[in-house]
Amino acid sequence: MATNRSPRRHSTRASTKAAGKGSSKASNSKKRSSAKGGGSGPFSRLGEVLSREAIGLVLLVAGIFFTASFVTGRGAVLGEAGLLAATRTLGVVGLALAPLAVLAGALLLLGRFPGRRAAGLALLLVSIAATLAATLPPQTRFDEAVYPDRGGLVGSGIYGALAVAGGPVGAALALLALYAAGVFLLTGLSPRDSAAGASARAGSAASTLREKLRDARERRRQQGAQKVRQASPKRARPAQEELRGVHGGPSESEAPGALPEDAGAPPLQPAARVFDYEGGPEGSTEDEPEEPFEIVLPEFREEAGLDEEGPVIPGEYSLPPLSLLRPGRGDPEHDAEGTSRRLTRALADLGVEATVVRAVVGPRVTRYELRLGSGVKVGKVRNLQQDIAYALAATEVRILAPIPGKSAVGVEVPNTRPAVVTLGDVFREYPAGNDWSLPVALGKDISGRAVFFDMAEMPHLLVAGTTGSGKSVMLNGLLTSLLLTTDPRQVKMVLIDPKRVELSQFARVPHLITPVVTDVKKAANALSWAVAEMERRYEVLEKFGVRSLDGYNEKRPEKQMPYVVVVIDELADLMMTSAAKVEDAVIRLAQKARAVGIHLVVATQRPSVDVITGMIKANVPSRIAFAVSSQVDSRVILDTPGAEALLGQGDMLFKPVSALRPSRVQGAYLSEAEVDEVVTACAERAQARFVEEVTETRGEKEESGEPEDELLPDAASFVVATQQASVSAVQRRFRVGYSRAGRIVDALERKGVVGPHEGSKSRSVIVTELELPRIFDPEGSGDGTNPGGPDGRAGGVDGDEGAFPFGRFDEERGTGGGDPYGAPRDRE
């Protein structure tokens, strides 16, 4: 028994000892591996961060150094070596390595630069270098001299290998693949994601197109329903009567055109078509408004006989036919139903309870009349202009809060497609038998009715607006209206056009007193002549005991005194050169010239307070404002905002002297061809006879009371010959004192020899040597005075009471028989 137990105990101890030895060996191996590997856990991660930051710092510093070296060329040996290595390796692309190194270093420091983006950027650089190398001929592709200007050694090598392997086509396809791989790696997109995004965008576009087509079909269906209701007035009558009973409209005996409109509307206006909107056919109840509302469409009316030319009587002036004007084309396109729904919904979202009760469709805009809910303030709607424009996706929205003469708020929204209003359209509604002295066709109002006004009742007009807003077209329409409706014996014109091209078409009309004035100095002289003519006319009226031009013409029908219309196309140019003289003349004419038949039309594209001064505004009561850039400019013109919300291209706010608020009008368009036809027709009927004294400088010798210097003619010859119009030059040449030389130069300026003082610059010489005898001839009329009267003013015929206002022109015309306009051009 003993012998059997001892071997087992021995084996057990041996196995235990062997297991202990094995475990101790394993632990020792782990310790050795741990000591050899440097450990694991946070220390290893810290080492990785430190190494990344070190690399990023090195890249950032090196990139900044080489970028500055490449730009300034002051990198010494290291900078030159870097430039040579970069351009020889990658060519032009190598210059981008330094800035890219700065970017890579910064991203490494921030810990946001994955290797995938670095690989994509590298592929793009290599692809660009290979593309540049592809532009070289094969024989020079590996020439070291061309490496810096193309793709370098790398680009030439890659493209050369691709071209040898697959030819030009294979090389191009391989480069495209490299570009695509670089873009996908750099952006993180995959071809599958790109295809999915493109498919989603195409689906969204198709859905939007389907919605637009559905809306278009709905609009056509609603328009067809309107035409059906228009063709069945008997069925619409009960709805109209019910609507009138609810909203207080006109009675049954009144015509449809007798709907209430704005207060102060001009008379003799055409009627309008009225429809009651009650939705489409049955089954479309979801798009119907809650309450019915009126849609007032413009109705175009044509007077009989407008295209017929009047009888031509020998020796008499006949007006040009209105058939020279062309009609417009097309009706306005609108979406009154859809816009009214969107407007009501937008106001509800903004916390305003309102319903659309009426839509008045005009040629350019449609006015939606809103009836506000109980307790809603009008000012709240007025402050929502920009929000409403956003909700309706409109360019500009104008709010009338409230509409004058109505318990409603107006929202004016541009039409989908505006109608073209021409001067021919407006004159087709010209009222026959009117008593207007100076009729002018302006355009059509918000209801599509023609707007006329009498220039004699304005009595002066201020027109302002930015470039391209329609100001010049409106002036052409004003002058053309006067040519079509007035006789040259009734109206005379003075046209001042410093821009030289706007009014040049009217240079041949017989209504002109003087040629179109384009010189700024002559323009100031023309205004001074108008002031002198106004004073002379007042003396004539005082002598005959009458108070106005009409009273004088009624008392002396054999010697009629015509109206005078002075048109200034650009006031800003005159105010910049002769501000004091021009402003004084405009103010005096605006204050006193109405009674004697002289009327001003002042236009400018700079509606600022230094051009339209307070005194000019106070004496020019009628205003027309076109589109301006700010509320400040609108207040300068109209004393109220609103012009900043206009649409341009003839869209205007018209405020005559008798109106409390401006009204919106779409100006009449007139082409240059139509203007030329009307001017030619007028020129064939009579010739213009000009009065040269209108633009000549008036003599101030009698006004100052100083005798003329005896050296003045010699000084004028010296100044013209030497082109030196300075006081010191005259003083040295004639050896006179400084004061006397200054008086001589001032006298030369008064006579129009030299221009005004321009600071440190020398005065400009205006005349030539050939014009000096006319100026200094004591026997002629060129002494600067007006020969029309003995006192130097624009007087009448010698020996006459002064009934004829144009000097020698009236001596030639006389008061007897014969042709007062001269022979027509075809009989010369």
TrEMBL record:
Positions contributing to ATP binding: 465-472
Ranges of residues in domain FtsK: 448-635
Compositionally skewed regions (Gly residues) per UniProt: 781-797
Annotated spans, Disordered: 1-42, 196-292, 307-339, 773-828
Ranges of Low complexity composition bias in the record: 14-27, 196-207, 318-327
CDD domains: TrwB_TraG_TraD_VirD4
Listed transmembrane segments: 54-77, 89-111, 118-137, 157-186
Biased composition (Basic residues): 1-12
Family indicated by similarity: Belongs to the FtsK/SpoIIIE/SftA family.
Protein known as: FtsK domain-containing protein
Organism, scientific name: Rubrobacter marinus
